[in-house]
User: What shape does this take?
Amino acid sequence: QITLKESGPTLVKPTQTLTLTCTFSGFSLSTSGVGVGWIRQAPGKALEWLAVVYWNDDQRYSPSLKRRLTITKDTSKNQVVLTMTNMDPVDTTTYYCARTQWRYCSGDGCYFGFVDYWGQGALVTVSS
Amino acid sequence: EIVLTQSPGTLSLSPGERATLSCRTSQSVSSSYLAWYQQKPGQAPRLLIYGASNRATGIPDRFSGSGSGTDFTLTISRLEPEDFAVYYCQHYGSSPLFTFGPGTTVDI
Assistant: This one.
């Protein structure tokens, strides 16, 4: 059974740095093709991708937030950590960690970049 | 940058009816990189379809995906009460790496 769970502060002050940890089970981030990333969603809004780290330690970021984000993995602990600097009230939202398949091949073909498992989400409020 | 547009914004239907949701991309994409998700209130999204037409594990066969190029469709053949939710399409591979559409709400 694959599970992911986000943990971190529920409240941060403006200008502070947010650190979120994703702890997962049921798979290994050393498996070829697997990635773990972060996606956020403001209340009533669409999903916004933030960052992903792959099994080979390839790290990718949303261009609009790249300067503020760092994603790292600890394969031995089954954890992925996201840090976001200079938090602002507009960053108040639910943050999801999720597993993604860089490439999944079956008898019918190969498919890329879908998110097959999600955490429950963590609501982070930015307020003084 | 590839932009995803979903229509309609809201689809008001009754149980048993057929739902047809559209996702259009701003430029032609490979269907191998297109996925659909369902999200119910207070829950995380759930993968429905990957590679434009492949159902994810455990997804009922009333859900189907199709399309190519710039036009993709998610069809729910007969709506069940638990299908009333928001549906997102997603593309992988351009910049940003993961792009989600704005969503279509299917409500009663």
Observations:
- The longest strand of chain B covers residues 63-76.
- The beta strands of chain B are 4-7, 10-12, 19-29, 34-39, 46-50, 54-55, 63-76, 86-92, 98-100, 104-107.
